[in-house]
Amino acid sequence: MSLQGFRVPKEIIFGEGALSHLSTLEGKRATLVTGGNSMKRFGFLDEAKKQLEKAGMEVSIVDGVEPNPSIETVIRGGREMAEFNPDWIIAIGGGSALDAAKVMWVYYEYPATKFEDLVAFKFPKLRTKAKFIAVPSTSGTASEITAFTVITDPENHIKYPLVSAEITPDIALLDPALPAKMPAHITANTGMDVMTHAVEAYVSTAATSYTDPLAMEAIKLVYKQLPVAYVDGDNMKAREDMHNASALAGMAFTNASLGLVHSLAHKIGGEFGITHGLANSILLPYIIEYNMKATDKFKEIEKQLEIKDLVEELKTLNKKVGIPVTLKEVTEVDMSEEKFKEVLDRMSKNAFEDPCTLTNPRVSSIEDVKAIYESAYYGRTAKNI
């Protein structure tokens, strides 16, 4: 039997006001990494800067991280950090900002790093110059907890999931005041991303007695509280439960890995730019149908949730939070049937080769992946694949 491990951030600070923990840090300089304007617009970027200055630190800001952070962006960020020489890197914002900051950290400490090495999971030893804090503004990606990041190669239309224990944050700050500002559709997409993380971690071939309880608790919290947070964004109990569910699911999947839902979502995201959580939420019921032949653990989820049909319940949950049941119905990007068919073979091959495929409970093939994509696009059952 091979040895397994369990790793999460050394410190997790959670609850309203968690952002104030930044004022307790020791150091001379800190760099804040963020995405668009929301953290600035809602005052959280200024608040983070103020708390760091309270700690006596000089602060720089690396902003403009795009929704699907590119190789160019992370190299640029590393270069900007090298000019400032921070002791702390604090990523604040959605999953994209957190993901990008992790790889900026690599390029800050090792400017000559080859991206191909990171794709091959060859990461250098970090913390030679700085430590890393993650402050998520969405309850979804759990990047604040994990050893995972996803970086996009826009030229080849491929999203690369990169994995290394080195990029697990030192501290995660979970302040529900940040996700409380999310609009309803982002609450929905990120919330179903949490559900996907939890379900895939629970049925992963690398799941353990350490990860299963965390995954199950996250499943229960999302099932109960996502519809509440979607309808009433100011319900802080629902927001806090969803934020904690995201972290719990992250603890599970960073140690148990994921499965085909993420493999397929990564690649359709690379081809069309569809939001990651939205892709996950649509694909999840179809891949559960496909995987049911290989594991009885879906029955345990049904038992714990006191439901009869997990697939139908997830489709109903999607509808409750405004998510379509098929890929064909997606309107945020142009995913016409013609374009879908045009990239289907390439996308299926790339998805099958995604590292998340390795821990899927059912052994698959390129042909199976293609059939699943078609099922999710047209709304056909995947039970017969």
Automatic annotation (TrEMBL):
Limits of the Alcohol dehydrogenase iron-type/glycerol dehydrogenase GldA domain: 9-176
InterPro entries: ADH_Fe/GldA, ADH_Fe_C, ADH_Fe_CS, Alcohol_dehydrogenase_Fe, NADPH_BDH
GO MF assignments: alcohol dehydrogenase (NAD+) activity; metal ion binding
A Pfam family of this chain: Fe-ADH
SUPFAM superfamilies attached to this UniProt entry: Dehydroquinate synthase-like
PROSITE patterns the UniProt entry points to: ADH_IRON_1 (PS00913), ADH_IRON_2 (PS00060)
Keyword terms of this UniProt record: Oxidoreductase
Protein name: Alcohol dehydrogenase, class IV
Boundaries of every Fe-containing alcohol dehydrogenase-like C-terminal domain copy: 187-377
Domain of life of the native organism: Bacteria
